[in-house]
Amino acid sequence: MAAMTKLALITGANRGIGRSAALHLARDGVDIIATYRSHADEAASLVAEVEALGRRAVALPLDVARPAGFTLDAVLPHFERDTFDFLVNNAGFSRGGMIADVAEEDIDALVDVHFKGPLLLTQSLLPLLADGGSIVNLSTGLARFTSPQRAVYGSVKGAVEVLTRYLAAELGPRGITANVIAPGPVATDFSGGIIRDTPEFQEHLASLTPLGRVAVADDIGAAIANLLRPGNGWVTGQRIEVSGGIHV
Q1: How far is the C-alpha of 248 from the C-alpha of 243, rounded, in Å?
Q2: What is the pLDDT of residue 196?
Q3: pTM beyond 0.70
Q4: Which end of the chain has fewer beta carbons closer than 10 Å to its terminal beta carbon, N or C?
Q5: What's the Rg (C-alpha) of the chain?
Q6: What is the pLDDT of residue 209?
Q7: CB 118 within 8 A of CB 89
Q8: What does the chain look like in DSSP terms, one character per residue?
Q9: What is the residue extent of each domain of the chain?
């Protein structure tokens, strides 16, 4: 009997790291549920790319800060499944500010998008996550080292890392693994594309990195896909930094 095709749900999959992870997983034979908050055209083009790779895909709107009411009831039958295998909590944004003047609304927004929302989304999806499945949460190198105006963002991602260890402990009896991928600087649309669009900033960050450059989305998407391949089932509760060794 042929093995059942794996199914991944990736938040914020319309662009950047999420999109790269979706395409890498599709090349590995995984079907994709992609969520997006805006840019439905990008999500539709991702679905087309995944289908061109011979896999099935659906895109669903989701604001991860407000996951109440999000459901997979209408889409799981499309994949002939009543469960899914991989949850990748990728969606996010960054907002700066020194501790002395960071605004309360920015703190709330960062907590909602990076911690509270993904926690509630994961909670709601746990009954549908197959035993033996996997959760990958996205953190940041900024939870290990510091950078100006990123105190709240880095701190909230630190909370994500602690939460991931608790997920690993609580879900271990179901054979579900939970791990963190923590990117370093990545040249994407993230933070308004500041790294991608500022050559002198890229040069500075590259100078701090043993591999001598900043990352592109595929550096991180490939690592996510690799973690979800067969053979990594004994890895759980771990933080894997994918940063080119910055500030090693």
Answers
A1: 9
A2: 65
A3: yes
A4: N
A5: 17
A6: 95
A7: yes
A8: -PPPPPEEEETTTTSHHHHHHHHHHHHTT-EEEEEESS-HHHHHHHHHHHHHTT--EEEEE--TT--TT---TTTGGGGT-SSEEEEEE-------B-TTT--HHHHHHHHIIIIIHHHHHHHHHGGGEEEEEEEEEE--GGGTS--TTBHHHHHHHHHHHHHHHHHHHHHGGGT-EEEEEEE--B-SSHHHHHHHH-HHHHHHHHHTSTTSS-B-HHHHHHHHHHHTSTT-TT--S-EEEESTTTT-
A9: 7-242
- Residue 157 reports pLDDT greater than 80: yes
- Residue 165 buriedness (CB in 10 A; 0-12 / 13-18 / 19+): middle
The separation between the first and the last C-alpha atoms of the chain, rounded to the nearest angstrom, is 47
Catalytic entry in 84, 86, 153, 190: 153
| Domain covering 7-242: architecture | 3-Layer(aba) Sandwich (3.40)
Q: Which two tokens stand for residue 6?
A: 């794996």
Confidence of residue 116 (pLDDT cuts 50, 70, 90): very high
Lowest mean pLDDT among 1-5, 110-114, 240-244: 1-5
Question: In this predicted structure, what is the pLDDT of residue 192?
Answer: 60
Nearest-angstrom CA–CA distance, 225 and 17: 11
Task: Work out the percent of the chain whose per-residue pLDDT is above 70.
Answer: 95
